[in-house]
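(rape) hypothetical protein, Brassica napus. C-alpha cells?
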Amino acid sequence: MSSSFLSSTASFLFVLLYIGSFHVSDGAQQGTYIVHMAKSQMPSSFDHHSLWYESSLKSISESAEMLYTYNNAIHGFATRLTPEEADSLKTQPGVISVRPEQRYELHTTRTPLFLGLGVHNSGLFPETGPGSDVVIGVLDTGVWPESKSFSDEGYGPIPSTWKGECEAGTKFTTSLCNRKLIGARFFVCGYEAEYGPVDESKESRSPRDDDGHGTHTASTAAGSIVEGANLLGFANGTARGMAYRARVAVYKVCWKPQCFSSDVLAGIDKAIEDNVNVLSLSLGKRNRDYTNDVAMGAFSAMERGIFVSCSAGNDGPSPSSLSNVAPWITTVGAGTLDRDFPALVTLGNGKSYIGASLFKKDALPPTLLPFVYAGSASNNATYGKFCLSGTLIPEKVYGKIVMCEKGENDRAEKGEVVKAAGGLGMILPNRANRGEELAAKAHVLPATTVGQKAGDIIRRYVKTDPSPTASIVIQGTVVKVKPSPVLAAFSSRGPNPITPNILKPDLIAPGVNILAAWTGALGPSGLASDTSRVEFNIISGTSMSCPHVSGLAALLKSVHPDWSPAAIRSALMTTAYNTYKDGKPLLDILTVKPSTPFGHGAGHVSPATAISPGLIYDLTTKDYIDFLCALNYNSSQIGCVTRGNYACDPRKMYSVADLNYPSFSVSVHGSGGTYKYTRTVTNVGGAGSYTVKVISETAAVKISVEPAVLNFKKVNEKKSYSVTFTVVSSMAPRSNSFGSIEWSDGKHVVASPVAISWT
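C-alpha cells:
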C-alpha cells in the first residue's frame, strides 16, 4: 500500500520525483519553501529566534505566514511564497538558504525466527529493563491504535525521559495512546497549504492511519507479541516486532497522495524534542547532495544520539538508484524470507509453473478454464494489455482466466478490472526489471504473479494456441524455502549517486512478503471497493526492511546504551553475512547470480552476532563535518546541514577516504592509480589480537593493509590502520569488482565489504 513498494494503492504511485509544490493564488504563483536561518546571527534586539524569523518574513511579505518553525531538525521555518518573494528573502540578513520543499514517496510472523531471534529473543536481549525504555519514532502514515500489536499489557510506566504527547484529531482521542504507543502526532500544514483542508470523509486529520503503511512499519519495528496472526490464513503464527518491548511514537507526516518535506521536517523536529532513541523513515527520493530535508533532519537527530534508519528505495535494479544515502543515515535494502505463498499455474498443454498468491476466498474450479490474453480482449490496442479500467471487452473475458501485463496501474486494480468484466482469474507475469521475484499480493479474485521466464512461456502459449486453457491452484504457505535470503529485484542499487566513495546501501533486511499489522480502514488489496477487513497484511518493499533494522538498532541500544548511532550501524554491518551456510554467495533474484555490495551492502543483517561485534567503527559530528569539507561544501551549505557556524580549515587536507565508515568503495578514475583509505577501530570485545584477511576477486587491484595485526589490551582501546588500493592499469577490467577486508581474533569476524568501480 505504499509508493514504490510492491503492494500499493493506486493513490500511492511508486515514483521518486522532485516536484516543487506550487499553486496559483490571487494571480501569483506560490509554493512552500524551507528557509534556513543562521541562528547565531540573530540581532540582540530580538528576545527569541521565532520573533526574528517572523520579522524577516514580514520584511518581504506582510501577508506571508509561517507553516512551521523548526527548532531542532534545522534552524528556520516553512512558509508560502511567490518565487519573487523567495528571491527577496534570500537577501535578508541571517538567511542561509530558501529552498522549494520536496515531496517524498513512501517507499512481520516469521521474520524474528528467520533472523535468529525467536519469539522471545532467545535470551539475546533483555525482556525487561532498558529494552522497554527505548523509544522508536516512526514517521509515516500514522497508526491504527486498536491493533493488538500496540497492546500495552505487561508494560511498566512510560519512561521518565519521554517528553512527547498524544494529539487528538479526527477519530483519534488521547486515550488511544497507552504504555506501548506512548506518542502520536500529525503534521499537515505542508499538505494543506498545497491541496487545501484534508477531506475528512476519506482521511483522518489526526494520527489515525487510513492507509496501512504506517501501522505496518511501526508494528514491524516494535509490535507487541500477537499469537495467531495471519492474513486470510496465510503466514499463520506469532507476530512480533523486532524490538517488541520497545515503546512506539508515531508521527503522521504522509497524506494521500504524498509526503511533503515541510511536514516530514516538522515530524523529525518534534521527534528530536520528544526524545526518541531511534527514528525510522520508510520514505524518500533521490537527491543530488546532502542539503535535502531528510538528510539535514537526520544529521540533527544523529547529533543527539538518535539512530536514523531509512529505506534505500524501490527503484532497483537500476544502478545508482538509491535514496537516503547520507553517511549519518543507515540505508537499508531488501531481501527475501524463507517463506513463500505458492500458486500453481497449469496450462492446457500440460506444462505447470509456480507463482505466488494471497487469494483465499472461493477457489477456481479444479478443471482447466478458457484462457485469454488481455491485449486480445481489449478495446484499446495500446493499453488494453495492462487491464486498465474500461479496456476489457466483457464478451471476450467472461468466464475466463486473463493474462494482464504489469505496469500503468496497481496489480490489485487489474484484478478488479478483470472481475468487473466477468473474468474468473488472472495471471500477472513479471517484467524484466523484476525477473524471478515473486512478491505476493492480496487480490479480489484468484490471481497469481509468475516470474519473467515462466511469464514469457505462458504469454507465448496464450497468444499462439488456438484454444488456450489454464488453471490456478493456490497452495497456501511454505517455509524453509532455499536459497534464502536473496536480494529483492526492486531494492535500489549503488553506486552511491552522490558520493561514490561511500558504499550504499549499508545492508539488507527482510522486505519481501512481510506480515505485520494493518489499518482497519482499508482492505488488504488497498482498493476502495475491497470491503474486507484484516488485522494483518502482507506487503513488500524497502519500506518493510527499514523498520526491521530500526527495531534491531533499538535492541542493540538496550544492551549498549552508550553506543553512538555510528557504533550501532557498525555492529550491524560488520556482522552481516553475504554467504549461505554452504559458503556460496547470496543471490540476486533478478539474475539468479551472486549479488554484490552495490545491492546488499555489507550483507544481510544478523542480530545474534551484532550484539558482540568485537570491533566497531565509530564516528562523531566532527567527522561528518570533515566529510562535508572533503566534498568542498561551503560554509552556507555546511550551516544548512549542521545548524552551526562552521568553516573548513584551508590549511587542512580533507579526504572522503578518511571517513571512518565500516565499508570501502573505490571509484577509479582513468585506467590506474593508487588510493589510500584510513580507518580506526574501537575494541568492544576484550583484550586480544586481530589479524587481517583480504579478499579480492580481481588481480587488477592489489589491496594491502598496514598493519596486518592489531593488538588490544583493554576495552575501548582504539587502533588505526590504512588500506592501499593499487590499480594495475594494464589489467584494469573497467567493470565493477568486489572483495572484503576482515579482521578476526578467532572469536569475532569484523568484515567490511569492498566495492571498486571505474568512472
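The two ends are 38 Å apart (CA to CA).
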